[in-house]
Amino acid sequence: MAKHRTFTTSFKKGIIVPSLIFILTVCLVSAMFPNLSELILNQMKEFIFVNLNWVYIWTVTLFVFFLVYLMFSSFGKIKLGSNDSKPEYSFFSWISMLFAAGMGIGLMYFSVAEPMQHYTSDVFDVNHYVNRAKNAQLYTFFHWGIHAWAIYGMVGLALAYFTYRYRLPLSLRSCFYPLLKNKINGPIGNAIDVFALCSTFFGITTTLGFGVVQINSGLRLLDIVPETNIGYQILIVGLLVSLSVFSATTGVDKGVKLLSKVNIFAVIILLLFVLFLGPTVYLIGSFTEGIGNYINNFFNLTFGTHVYDQQTLPWFYSWTILYWAWWISWSPYVGLFIAKISKGRTIREFVAAVLIIPTVFNFIWMSVFGNSAIWFDFSVANGALGALVSDPDALMFRFLEYLPFSTTASYMVIAIIIIFFVTSADSGIFVMNSIASRNATSNPKWQMVFWGLLLAILALILLNAGGLQALQTMTLITALPFSILMVIFGISLLKALTIDRNYYAKDFSVTTVPWSGDNWQNRLQQIVSFKKKSSVEEFIQSTVKDAFTDLRSEFSKNDIVASINDFGVRSKMEIEIKHDVLNNFKYGVKCQLKLISEYVLEEENLPDVEDKKAYFPKSYFGDSRSGYDVQYFTKKELISDVLKHYERFLEIITEEKNEMFVSSNRNDSLE
User: Fold this and answer.
1) 310: which DSSP letter?
2) CA proximity to 56, closest of 431, 387, 421, 331
3) Out of 193, 228, 564, 576, which residue is the most buried by the measure of CB atoms under 10 Å away?
4) Residue closest to 233 by CA, chosen among 566, 395, 4, 460
5) What is the 3-state secondary structure (H, E, C) of 505-532?
6) pLDDT score for 1
7) Residue 348 sits in a domain of what CATH number?
8) Where is this chain's protein located in or outside the cell (predicted)?
């Protein structure tokens, strides 16, 4: 008998259907009308970069300072998971994976191209080599440093916290939970995930396209292939996507982790090769001076808008603002992957590692490659490398020709680009499948193959039709609304962290301090009942009034005049001892409203609650200190509590240093 296999999928229709419709529509329009699409999208991008660039500046700045604040605050010790959770990956594996996913091919593509483009730009002092070289390094550091990783860290931290601390799905919708509560499971949540899925797909597609062009260019320069054309690009895409799908199907613990480790070792070998066979002394000195220059100019760079220097504005839009938009557009994908691998880390450990370690490595990498290229261009090549800045695909390979063993180094660069792409694409495929399935625990492997094929087909169509640039521009435009969503992530995260800290810092109620095992049945009945306003008023008019009456009588026997104030209402009462020179002593009890969580209303294994509103008797004092719930006090316990505060009052007023707090003119101000 033939075996029948049931077609299974973990895709969620509310996410996958609108996402595919939008992805296919945008890609096909970009391929069919590349020039028109690019023209319209470029006009939109130009308007945003010129008129709304301050949004990018302020949001990125907020992300940097917010994460630094969390790292040094008491929130830093909170774990991304339960308090006893442990990291799933070793520190080296963790850093390798987040670094490979976060930067990838960009390090190879821009490590020589960006410093050289800044170095040859008319924006800088074209007649002074030193100023041009310093500025090239400074702005490369700025674009690849703490600010870029703060964008990734912001999304990654929010996702990891809500996923592992609140046990919500690994999804951007989860970051809105403190604000939207269960509404994240409806259409609003689906819309957020659709946005994240489309943004991730567009980012990986454009990276695949540009990575393929650079690999093809390197193979042509090495005479491995005769030319750069669509035929060779199909072969390259097929190889890269096949490796990516295979790695993704083996899971994060195997394929992704292994390739990330291999890549880190490979880039370190290439880095040391250029460092020791290039102008070593110059590189070490320029790196040292570059770090100092970056620190000295950190705040000017962070808040700089170039508004006073109009001639630099086009450069500012084309580099800094474009970079911030690019990092933001990539942050859903990178943030999701970083969150996936960060369970068990503390917030302090997460922020410090994500902000500092990749930043330092990027600075070393960019200094070694960028400053070597600048040194060769000035000292050996007589401007030949600077003349190639319009061909960044080939610039890395042309630069290596000035070093010994250049052919071997070029092969290594191609291998690293391939591995970088595979590590980016396999983690991207994993993330896209996770979004589309709402983080399902079990996924059929055909879904990984599906994402790989879709990436390959659409990237090749766009490459052949010339629509890849339009898609990249589309991705940059989506960064504007997502930057606002990221600010809301921060608000939501801070609200949740505050609740988290207060939850674990909350001690036993003051009411429970004098408890013994006597009358424990009555205590339990009181604990599991939610009081109405009328019952609290009855408590005040009976237990509280009786206690205050007995206290007034006893004070009178000791020649102390005490009065009871009920303000003509049933919901408030206080005992007061007035003074002429000293501040008055007051101890009062009032009816206080509190709102009950919806979870309590829905929970069957808790006492029945008919209304979200509940009331309790709360103490208050004459010096405006915060009071507490006294609903469980008996008459004697309430008398004891008043006497404790009166003893404190007498202790304070006898100390000379407290004169400013106990003088009689304070009585009027505290009324």
Assistant:
1) G
2) 331
3) 193
4) 460
5) HCCCCHHHCCCCCCCHHHHHHHHCCCCC
6) 42
7) 1.20.1740
8) Cell membrane
